[in-house]
Amino acid sequence: MSDPKAIFLKDASVSTADGDQRAFIRKALGGYYVNRDLQKARFRSWEKARDAASMAKWSAVNDLGNQLEKFVGNFEKNGGVVHWAQDAAEAREIILKIAADAKAKAIIKSKCMTSEEIHLNDALEKAGYGVVESDLGEFIQQLRGEAPYHFVFPCMHVKREAISELFTKHLGTAPTNSPEELTMIARRHLRQLYVDADIGISGANFLVAETGQISITENEGNARLTTALPKIHIALAGIEKVVKNLDDLAILLPMLATAGAGQPMTCYNTLYSGPRQKGECDGPEHFHLVLLDNGRTRLLADPEQRDALHCIRCGACLNVCPIFKNIGGLAYGTTYQGPIGSVITPHLRGLKQWNHLSGASSLCGACTDACPVRIDLHHHLLHNRRNAVKTNPTLFDRVFHFGFNFVIQRPKLFAFGGKVFRTTLPLLKKLPLPYLSAWLKTRDLPTPPSQSFRAQWKDQNHE
Amino acid sequence: MSSRENILGRIREALQVKAPQPHLQAPLTPTNHPPQGKEWLPDGGESLTESLAILEGQLAKLKTVLVRVPNETLAVEAVKLLSQEKGWKQVAYQGHPLVTPIAQSLACQTWQADADFNKQKLEQCDVSLTSCETIVAQLGSILVSSQTSGGRALSVLPHAHVVIARTSQVVPDLADAIRQIKERYGQKLPSMLSFITGPSRTGDIERILVLGAHGPKELFLVLIDG
Amino acid sequence: MRISLFVPCFVDQLTPQVGLATAQVLRRLGHTVEFRSEQTCCGQPSFNSGQWDVAREGARHALKVFRGSEVVVGPSGSCVAMMRNFYPQLFKGQPEEAEANDLAQRTFEFAEFLVKKLGVTDVGAKFSHKVTYHDGCHALRELRLKEEPRQLLRAVKGLELIETEEGESCCGFGGLFSAKFPMISTAMVQVKGGALVRTGAEFVVSSDPSCLLQIGGWLSREGKPIRPLHLSQVLANEVS
Fold first, then answer.
1. A-B Cβ pairs (cutoff 8 Å, strict)
2. What CA dihedral angle connects B205, B208, B211 and B215, to 10 degrees?
3. Contacts of C32 by beta carbon, 8 Å cutoff, 6+ apart
4. Where a domain ends, among A250, A275, A294?
5. Which domain, by its residues, includes A282?
6. DSSP annotation string for B3-24
7. Burial classification of residue A277, based on how many CB atoms lie within 10 Å of its CB (0-12 exposed, 13-18 middle, 19 or more buried)
8. Residue A399 covered by a domain
9. Residue C1's pLDDT band (boundaries 50, 70, 90)?
């Protein structure tokens, strides 16, 4: 298997060179910034709301065992079946078995990043099931054979002309440049699929311990349809999605919409408490919930970074991250992109292989300021870097930093070294030196002064 | 050891060390912990009049069409007019004291979907007529349930959705609506409760807003005084 | 007040005029300025690279240097953020913990010191040019400074201040990040630089000399007409 860091550097080089695409992404985000700020301004205190939201998640996650058991107890009372999956393979197995037992043929899915994480579609397709993504962005990405670019806006990088070509190729429809018409094409195509599907697979934004309900947030209505028409509903959710009380959603749902999409509330926020009940005229006969660990308990065991599990997957951190905006979502090579992805991927998939994501950041902190639940995102990138050094220091780094700190503890050596650097800079610029050559590829350095500050100060002040 | 035991065991072990609280802007007080929300969430109005004004503003922004009528008779007239204007041919409706008289007054084909549910038939319908549980002024949201609004699919599959409700169903904010859910149902919740906030929409293509992604492209709220 | 100047390592070696201008302004306001010549670097490069044990050694030297100082002022948001926000973390559980916390309390960024500690916004400066401002991320988000540099600039005679779109966007320096991930760093400075040029300003001013190294380096390579200048250099121009 190729080295993720090498792949990342290659992909980032390609995407950062595409000025057109970067400008397109910036343009797409422009409207979001305006709407987000409008909605934030409607809150009487956005900062107090962040406090409340962060405390709601903190108290749930730091009592996760009890809250999960409470949730499961209430969920099962309503007639749903809970399955526990320690890892991706187990989760896939569970879902494949449900499909096999049901003799299902057609499966429709609403947005579920957790299903991306466990590579569910691949497994279902290999087992012979027809799987269709119903969320428009995911549907487009499925046709493109590409992973989601952004976990809230999966195809924000794709221009309408490309979508038109895609639909002509796969659906046989006439070309069109209108986002409205393209959306209607997808709408028409998917309607019968909802009606015909045997199984609907969804994610869950929140698991409410108090009531045993799962909460799904969406704009399109595809999750509503996925969970209304097929006979079987399977929901897949990470164990960290728990909130203690239904009241918590009064804050979390509007904040998710505001931070995630610049809306006061998304179009459909739905609470599910079980399969169809007696007296209800429709709805699935069976409701399965698969609870997934897959490395989350590892993150839970790190008290310093445990708050990364508070994430409500709003995507606000991606939307403000200059790294994300310039390298694009696919360059990360992971299920979860952006700052949150860079924080959690080393925990979920291995620090040694994935720590470069934590290094690929200027630590500007825009993400931490944007996070509705106050995750200390940019500092966690620092923490990951520190942890990587503890477990896997590279020889070059050890030598470089030892050398640097040796020098800065010795002022005369520092002054001498600085003078040597300044004097030999014209020559140094011509050599292939680490860090210096990389800098000089695209940037100049100031002409070195003949005298350092300390030398000038000494001259001026006779000290 | 089952996976359940394994996972819960790992959680127990992981939580032996407590994590520090998030860096809060304001110190914890009884009003922000546990979170109540009213102090800092958007305004929902101090009186019904205020709430209705806020609701009107929110609905307009969402492109939910609001039709206010003083009584049930005029509600019937309003929907009849709408039906003629839109040229609806197949109407699915929920059997409900507010809805049934309206449905039965329409000239086109009507079908009480919750009496005899058929998903293929529902897919062919132009519009659904339902009641709702609660309306949230602060957000312009309409709460429907599988138990009291004609099932799960009725309010989302047809191309348009008309909700018939009374002004007394309006509450200021989401926290109020959630409290009402708990008071109304206790432990016996409907299998689905959904807050509908505007017609269906997507921003997936170049982050440009398009209405009618999968759910109804048009949403109407006929609000009867009282 | 006897102000102990903190001069960032690269200011000392590459852009000494920033340190000199800072001292000049503080002296003009009637204070004594000292430069403890044993100082070298705050240790942030190693800290940001995750080399905390080694960084602690370097930082220990800085603690020693500033022992007994009345107040420390540095014309650099990132270095001051290191000393104020991160030294306490670095020295937690160490014998120097109390000293690090104490130093943090009396270390200030230059604009912050003038406006919040001295209560001064008009330092008697004149600079008749069109200027735009870049908010360094450490100053903006670690030290929560936004208005202070602007208050100082608005009081400068003849100065026209224009805000940049992308004003709060990171310039892409991030210390060694700029060299470890140069293609991303360059992409970021392209966005920033483009926005700066579009303001039509003659100078881009910042309270962070490290940002100016990055921005200035790109502007120079690209031959753009706008020039970098540190806040202290603007304020050092006296009204004659």
1. 322
2. 40
3. C1, C2, C3
4. A294
5. 64-294
6. HHHHHHHHHHHHTTSPPPPP--
7. middle
8. no
9. confident
Are A292 and A409 spatial neighbours (Cβ–Cβ below 8 Å)?
Answer: no
Residues shown for chain C? 240
| Rounded Cα distance, A376 and A384, in Å | 12
Could you say which of A369, A418, A444 has the minimum Cβ distance to residue C13?
A418
A234 and A105 part of one domain: yes
Q: Are A420 and A289 within one domain?
A: no
Is residue A279 in some structural domain? yes
Q: How is residue A329 annotated by DSSP? A: G
Which residues on neighbouring strands pair with residue B207, listed in sequence order?
A: none
Establish if B197 touches chain A: CB-CB under 8 angstroms. Answer: yes
**Cβ-based burial of A344 (10 A; exposed 0-12, middle 13-18, buried ≥19):** buried
What total number of domains does chain A contain? 2
> Are A221 and B215 in contact (CB < 8 Å)?
yes
A293 vs A237: CA distance, rounded Å: 9
Q: Which positions ≥6 away from A6 have C-beta within 8 Å? A: none
Q: What is the pTM of this model?
A: 0.95
For residue range A277-308, list pLDDT tens digits in order.
999 999 999 999 999 999 999 999 999 999 99
CA angle A405, A409, A414 (to 5 degrees): 90
On whether both A416 and A286 belong to a single domain, the answer is: no
Which residues 223-262 in chain A show a CB within 8 A of chain C?
Answer: none
C119-169 residue pLDDT tens: 999 999 999 999 999 999 999 999 999 999 999 999 999 999 999 998 899
CATH number where A194 lies:
3.40.50.10420
Question: Which residues, at least 6 apart from C19, have a Cβ–Cβ distance to it below 8 Å?
Answer: A453, A457, C5, C7, C11, C12, C35, C75
Rg of chain A over Cα atoms, rounded to whole angstroms, equals 26
Query: Tokens 């149902």 map to which residue?
Result: B185
C184 in Cβ contact with C113 (< 8 Å): no
Q: Is the dihedral of CA A42, A44, A47, A48 positive or negative?
A: negative
Q: What is the CATH number of domain C130-235?
A: 3.40.50
What residue ranges do the domains of chain C occupy?
A: 2-117, 130-235
Interface of A with B in 375-434 (CB under 8 A): 375-376
Which member of A268, A281, A300 has the closest CB to residue B14? A300
Cβ-Cβ contacts under 8 Å for B118 (sequence gap 6 or more) = none
Q: What DSSP string describes B103-150?
A: HHH-SSEEEETTTS--HHHHHT-SEEEE--SEEETTTTEEEEETTTTT
- One-character DSSP codes across A265-298: S-SEEEEE-SSPPTT-SSS-SEEEEEEE-TTHHH
Residue with tokens 């397109």: A24
Q: Both A227 and A92 in a single domain?
A: yes
Q: Distance (Å, rounded) from C-alpha A88 to C-alpha A123?
A: 11
Boundary-marking domain end, from A229, A264, A294: A294
Q: Do chains B and A touch (3 or more CB pairs under 8 A)?
A: yes
In a domain, A197, yes or no: yes
Residues A273 and A419 in one domain: no
Q: What is the CA radius of gyration of chain B?
A: 21
Residue B29 pLDDT greater than 70, yes or no: no
C66 and C31 in contact (C-beta within 8 Å)?
Answer: no
Task: Tell me the pLDDT tens digit for each residue of B151-194.
Answer: 999 999 999 999 999 999 999 999 999 999 999 999 899 999 99
Q: How far is CA A56 from the centre of its chain?
A: 21
CB of B11 less than 8 A from some CB of A: yes
Across-strand partners of C203? C131, C227
**Whole-angstrom Cα distance, residue A264 to residue A35?**
9
What pLDDT sits at residue C238? 81
Average confidence (pLDDT) over A223-245: 98
Note whether residue A49 is domain-resident: no
Residues of B with Cβ-Cβ distance to A157 under 8 angstroms: none
